[in-house]
Amino acid sequence: MTTANFKDHFSGNAGNYKKYRPVYPDGFFVYLASIAPSSEVAWDCATGSGQAAEKLAQHFSTVIATDASNEQIQNAKLSKNIFYKVAHAEDAPITSNTIDLITVAQALHWFDPKLFFSEARRVLKSNGIIAVWSYNLLSLTPELDEIIEKFYKKIIGAYWPAERRLVEDGYKNITFPFTKITCPVFSMSAEWSLEELLGYISTWSAVKLYREDKGSSPIDIIINELSKNWGEPSRRHKVSWPLSVIIGENSR
Question: 32, 169, 198, 214: most buried, per Cβ within 10 A?
Fold first, then answer.
């Protein structure tokens, strides 16, 4: 099978990606497990360092977690029922008709959708479930949100890959060839220090591309303004990200 060209924006920062990326809510995976035809095998596609795979492992006997980046896989947390493999989303080393649930967390925009969805249909059981989701900008306080939005759009805006627009649109313009299931509303949340916020921003693909182009970090441009509006250095702010979720059933 011909696969899409892999655009690797994250391998060079895999350690920080694992450390600073937000954690998906437990209730979301309880829900996904409840609508899957069985709890035998789940496939977490483009697993990164395994944030979603770890959650799935609490509900499924076996989790196959694949990523095209070997460095991301090397940074993944090991578990006795998670089997990590380096593989492209469009060409999975998975037997046909064996998967109860496929998950794609914040990664579908990097795929060739037509090829991936064809592969998903191949490996899913009849009535198997596929869930893809994304999240856009985080929210803290009005003052901090304004600084981050300016940074996102004006300072590093030109460095976002074209695929980022799909995330901004919540995947609404992607043709989804499965029977859609209405999903409850879920969001991620955390309480972060300023250091954790900066660590998270450092994992953005546009920050990496800016740094490669300019030879300096764009975060340096906003650090003083963020610090001024943060409050005491030890203060922790609540951070939230609404999830844009699309779920479908492999009806045959």
Answer: 32
